[in-house]
Amino acid sequence: MSTDIAPGALKGRTLLISGGSRGIGQAIAVAAARLGANVTVLAKTDRPHPTLPGTVHTAVEAIEEAGGRGLAVVGDVRDEESVAEAVRRTVEVFGAIDICVNNASALALQSSEDLPVKKFDLMQQIQLRGTFLLTRAALPYLRRSGSAHILSLAPPLNLSPKWLGAHPAYTTAKYGMTLLTLGWAAEYAQAGVRANTLWPESTIATSAVRNLLGGEAAMRKARDPQIMADAAVRVLTASPAPTGRTFLDVEVLREAGTADLSGYGAPDGIEYDIFVDEPTSRRVD
């Protein structure tokens, strides 16, 4: 990958992202906007949530403050009509779709016997159905782009018993996103559509980590969402453009020459993310 991103590297290109009203999704949208991209955000959050910051509208404000053009579409990535409307409005306003980012996701880590079926269904519908619907609807425009990219926030396929047995329902949903994306890389290779996944090495300081994975103590072991945003725009602007790869954020940044990751937070040392094995040299048996 190239080590430097030229100013305006995404100028004139249009990015469509699911679930970008806060957290990692918003960070990626804003990072792309700083490089000149047009960004459509498809998300359900039309009004402020009592405990979660940000809406689809505040996300677009941040995109425009960063120098890009933004479009808010209130809708559900699971709903075919919502997705079709997001694609239609994106093309109507910006004239094209060059990048599709599958960011929307649901998290439930209960064991198979404890997980409510409605949570199982929610994860499969958002991660699998939503990723498929959004990408499928965008593909006719991606094929015309000349610089098309599908980027899914999904993990490497770690098939160790540790991860297969931890929370099979969530694992199935996230690995399904990865398999779809690698499948598109192969299916559309001749059409010039690149497709890759990106996943964080560490937990990321989002509301999900605070609310579901351990509160403020967990946040002190989580890196800032900006690390995923910086890695994402490097993948999206890389030359030659990669495809069919499953990246960790730190791999992307280190390959680009960023050795010091201390600026991304985690003052108490990182907590390795789900599906990421801690290096053997750091383990204490």
UniProtKB/TrEMBL annotation:
Protein's UniProt name: NAD(P)-dependent oxidoreductase
Fetch the NCBIfam families from UniProt.
PRK08278.1
Spans through the membrane? none
- Keyword Nuclease set for record: no
Oxidoreductase among keywords: yes
Source superkingdom: Bacteria
The entry lists its GO molecular-function terms as: oxidoreductase activity
Report the subcellular localization.
Answer: Peroxisome
For this protein, the record's Gene3D superfamilies field holds: NAD(P)-binding Rossmann-like Domain (3.40.50.720)
The UniProt entry, under SUPFAM superfamilies, shows: NAD(P)-binding Rossmann-fold domains
Q: Which species is listed as the source?
A: Streptomyces sp. SID12501
The protein's UniProt keywords, in alphabetical order, are: NADP, Oxidoreductase, Peroxisome
Which family is annotated? Belongs to the short-chain dehydrogenases/reductases (SDR) family.
The beginning of the lineage is: Bacteria, Bacillati, Actinomycetota, Actinomycetes, Kitasatosporales
